[in-house]
Description:
By secondary structure, the chain is an alpha+beta fold. It has helices at residues 4-7, 17-27, 33-41, 151-163, and strands at residues 109-116, 119-124, 133-135, 144-145. The protein has a single domain (4-163), classed as SMI1/KNR4-like (3-Layer(aba) Sandwich), CATH 3.40.1580. It has a four-stranded antiparallel beta sheet, with no helix packed on it. The chain starts with a helix and ends in a 7-residue tail after the last helix.
Amino acid sequence: MFGASAHRFELGPPLTDDEVTAFEREHGVSLPEDYRAFITTIGNGGPGRWGGAGPYYGLHSLQDWATSLWGMPGQSTLATPFPAEPGRVFSDWPSEVAPDEDDEPYCGTLALSDQGCGYLSILVVSGPARGRVAGTGDTPAGPVFTRDAGFLSWYERWLDAVLAGATHFR
């Protein structure tokens, strides 16, 4: 599977509930339940350069949440609703959602995984698509949402692909 040589199918240790609660309090968000359960029960990030066992180059740790941002994170970056949602097509992303130089088009999201070539899988934590996984890209239409209901179904679909012998995850 693409990326497995980086993470070797290993995850880092889970975070404690107190660590995640402190993160949520600091950023003014509640993480989606399935993602929160994963990082407090299964694992958080991992040994690879880009994280632990997961799609593409592996799962980022929660501490690397800001990898998807174009600028520096602010106090309310995660709590600010992400403007994209499934079915919404933009004519010129990101100029429609971040028209000023200091605007952040990926507010309300955290980085899940590097896909390669500068693209990322992101998890929406604030806004109408809260809990959904999307891919960043350079198309004017905006982020592309996966067909998965949330983080856990996205991760399970990757596991199924691994078990089926797939070499790439889509």
